[in-house]
Amino acid sequence: MQQIHNLFTGTKDYIASADLQNSVNIAAALGRPLLIKGEPGTGKTMLARSIAEGLKKQLFIWNIKSTTKAKDGLYIYDTVQRLYDSQFGDHDVSDIRHYIKLGKLGEAFISSEQVVVLIDEIDKADIEFPNDLLWELDIMSFDIPETGETITARHRPIVVITSNAEKELPDAFLRRCIFHYISFPDEDMMAEIVRVHHPDLEKKLLEEALKAFYWVRSINGLQKKPSTSELLDWVQALVVGGISPEKICNELPFLGVLIKKDRDFYAVLQRLNSQGMQRKTSTPGLLR
Amino acid sequence: MFINFFYLLRSYGVPVSITEWMSLMEALSHGMAFSSLYGFYCLARAVLVKSETHYDRYDLAFHHCFKGIETPDELTERALKWLENALPALRISPEERKLFQEWDLDELRRQLEERLREQKEQHHGGGKWIGTGGTSPFGHSGYHPAGVRLGGESVNKSAVKVAAERKFRGFRADETIGVRQFEVALRKLRQLSSKVEGPKDELDIDETIQSTADKGGMLQLVWSRARKNTVKLALIMDSGGSMVPHTRICSQLFSAVNRATHFKDLKFFYFHNCIYEHIFLDPVCHLRNSLKTEDFLRVLGPEYKIVFVGDASMAPSELTMVGGAIDWNMSNNEPGIVWLHRIAAHFNHIVWLNPIPAEYWRWTEGAYTIALIKNIIPMFELTLEGMDSAIKKLKAKK
What we know:
The structure holds two protein chains of two kinds.
Chain A: H1 18-30, E1 34-38, H2 44-54, E2 59-63, H3 70-74, E3 75-77, H4 79-88, E4 100-102, H5 104-110, E5 116-120, H6 129-139, E6 141-144, E7 149-152, E8 158-163, H7 171-175, E9 178-182, H8 187-197, H9 203-218, H10 228-240, H11 245-251, H12 255-258, H13 262-275
Helix pairs in contact in A: 8-9, 9-11
Chain B: H1 3-11, H2 18-29, H3 37-48, H4 55-66, H5 72-86, H6 94-101, H7 105-118, E1 131-132, E2 139-140, H8 159-165, H9 179-187, E3 200-203, H10 205-214, E4 223-225, E5 232-238, H11 247-259, E6 265-271, E7 278-280, E8 290-292, H12 293-299, E9 305-309, H13 316-320, H14 336-346, E10 349-354, H15 367-376, E11 379-381, H16 384-395
Parallel strand pairs in B: 1-2, 5-6, 5-9, 9-10, 10-11
Antiparallel strand pairs in B: 3-4, 7-8
């Protein structure tokens, strides 16, 4: 078991809640992958960057697409290139190693020091994808049958996996992970997050923007609720546009930055014009 | 150690496995709980619970198991942190530790109850009432070293009370569901096989070897198509009066299905309480815009997966009698139940989603017809869990 000398406590531009810090440290100490779920825009992907920065480790990002196969992360054997090269005879095709390229996970394994690996949006890939990675993530080692080599991690990387819950992950995979659900930040936490990104923000403007933001989120039946990243963009727009704080709640300027769907856009405007900004008593974000 | 907590979690429906339990033990032996109940709460949740839909059950089980055990350790821990923050070099002495342990928790709780009874309004600052920022032992953001935190953010949260807050209630899988969650559930409904459409982007090794050999060794790459989802789905929804209370959930399901792009074909049909000679193409259920049910069976091959959505609640006569249709202008020469049998026999995969929770099926007004229909078509409740089982049923061979 590796000793974790320094604990993750967030970084100056990433505010991590105490729960989240705990989960990161648990995952790092146990050497298990950390599976992160949460609403879009709660900073799942940013977490890995922050861990890497906070613990001063290199970060390898493996972006998952619908066509990604588990093996791609370990290594790729470029058969087609080899076949072409053999055709023209201007490369040495006898050495198969020229055509083996390590994937992100493979690179992380051979790195000379402990690194952070981000497997981003694992649920984009095929349903079987996580199962195909089970063994490799468990023992942090894999074989390359083409060359007969075995690549074993010199230092167990800290693996962060994000998921948008588009597909269910297999139980066997889940059993080996440490799981954390990032819940949507409450107003105080959000104020802190915004301040990190816009340190010179006027207090009044921030208050009004947050009030408007949580009001919009509390509207029932939105197809896509605005998230943290949209709020940050919106605050930026408000600052650049020189909007006075009084206007924010009455007019919702630059609403297009917050709301991305036509139907939602009109729903919000309609609600604003008919009822004004009366906050409901329920906690936004947690109750549906 | 804590083995009863393990079984308690399982009895609350959190699927904890031995592997995970052993991980927890390993973590505990590394001191990852930081000797506090809240640390243990976070640790156990991270290691044992693998879905936010189970967070609420976890909270309940935790509360059940650790209710009343508010360890003095945690208070010491809290005081330790407090002291650490003030003077980093200071070591706490046993005497000091004792000082904090002397805060009697039962006494504190009794006082809290008393004060809850007395206090009628918000109160911030000051030293007695429950509120924020004061020196009263109750509330949050205050400075009473052994206080009882009530809501609010704190690094040194009291675990049992956090559990009692049940802030993940909204994520329970058996709560009725939103559009996105429907979509996620629907994505599971897929079946890969055909190779007829889509870009050719997979190297077909066998064909490549064959055609390269045919060309006398000149490399000839052959690409083939990736596999595609072949599921065809037909959603048949009840638009009768008894469905009005369920409109919201049905429209959510409707928009989720409508938005799902991964089906090969998707059709919507409607009926009023039960299906007879005609099946309707819009929710108005008027003959003008309808299809003969015979034709419906002819047009839709048995490979279509059928999802009925309805409360299956009607007068028994509507289901079992000739001429029992609720609409006067709809004379039916065969009872609805015959049509249901016919439809169930035609399709290979068919389920019924009922917005009425399963626990009421035996007691609701429509219990009689629900029981009858349930025998013909497998019925599931319209919740995320019910939907999951329904989709499993749809994927399985009959």
